[in-house]
Design a protein that fits this description.
The protein has seven helices and seven strands, in the order H-H-E-H-E-E-H-E-E-H-H-E-E-H. With 281 residues, the protein is of the alpha+beta class. The protein has a single domain, classed as Histidine kinase-like ATPase, C-terminal domain (Heat Shock Protein 90, 2-Layer Sandwich), CATH 3.30.565.10. It has a five-stranded mixed β-sheet. Strand 4 and strand 5 form a beta hairpin. Helix 1 packs across helix 3, helix 3 packs parallel to helix 4 and helix 4 packs antiparallel against helix 6. The radius of gyration is 27 Å and the shape is elongated.
Length: 281
């Protein structure tokens, strides 16, 4: 009887152990499922924020296209009214210039709308910035913001072009909004072979930030703006928090330097393509 009882206890212990293992497996499966759901929701959120950014640009690009078409129509009429060659040559040059600008705007918008996959690919950061600046050129002129490019030849990075365009748009629009009476916006690109990073700095000569604002600037929904500005951009408090999330997903870093009355500089460090490949090997 003692042996029989001992055997039953062993079987009960074995059954309890199996139950524990099953529970552990179920718990791990549940955690994996929740992690996958969170990742999917995060991806959907990033896509929704990207579409919101594109929506903000819609008014700007529509206005830009209207300006280009107005220029083309006016100079076409001028060329038809005047038979002399110098006037017609001038009209054709202006038409060509306006048409070229309209084509650049269309190419930039199409590039942003097409790059909706989540995959990473080799990216030329200089070219990507130029695409974004095309969309904001007139806006910068309107608000008397002088854009200064300090670009150097840098290695390509492994990135999601669409997400990086979203980061650049947020940083450039924030810099412009920090200078309501105009100023200088300096975009600097460099790299460090020793660390394996490409550095992108967006610096403005605007109002700057207090230490308190700097501590909270990456919090979701935190904003110092009362709402969207006259161009319909900003005010949600989601821009910078999204920027940091995107940069970190690229295994990058983001650093901020600012002081009241001295402007703000935001530097993004992203791994070079070669460094990314070495880490993945």
């Amino acid at each position: 009887m003692v042996r029989s009882g001992g055997g039953g206890g062993g079987r009960q212990g074995h059954g309890a152990g199996m139950d524990g293992q099953n529970f552990q497996r179920q718990l791990e499966a549940e955690r994996a499922r929740h992690a996958a759901e969170v990742a999917a929701l995060r991806g959907q959120l990033l896509e929704a924020r990207k579409l919101a950014t594109l929506g903000e640009l819609l008014g700007t690009t529509t206005h830009e296209f209207n300006n280009a078409l107005t220029t083309i129509l006016n100079y076409a009429k001028l060329g038809l009214r005047h038979a002399d060659q110098p006037t017609r040559d001038k009209a054709l040059e202006r038409i060509l210039s306006a048409g070229t600008r309209a084509a650049k705007i269309a190419a930039s918008v199409l590039s942003m709308s097409r790059n909706r996959s989540s995959r990473f690919e080799p990216v030329d950061l200089n070219a990507l910035i130029e695409e974004v600046l095309v969309l904001l050129e007139r806006e910068m002129i309107k608000y008397r913001v002088q854009v200064e490019r300090e670009f150097s030849s840098v290695p390509r990075i492994s990135a999601n072009p669409s997400q990086l365009q979203q980061v650049l748009l947020n940083l450039l629009v924030n810099a412009r909004q920090a200078m309501p009476t105009g100023g200088r916006l300096i975009i600097r690109i460099g790299h460090d072979d020793q660390t394996g990073f490409v550095d992108l700095t967006v610096r403005d000569t605007g109002c700057g930030m207090t230490p308190e604002v700097m501590r909270r600037m990456f919090e979701p929904h935190f904003s110092t703006k009362a709402g969207p500005d006259a161009t319909g951009k900003g005010g949600s408090g989601l821009g910078l928090s999204t920027c940091r999330e995107i940069v970190e997903s690229h295994r990058g870093r983001i650093r901020v330097e600012s002081a009241p009355g001295r402007g703000t500089a935001i530097t993004i460090r992203l791994p070079m393509l070669q460094a990314t490949e070495r880490r993945g090997a």
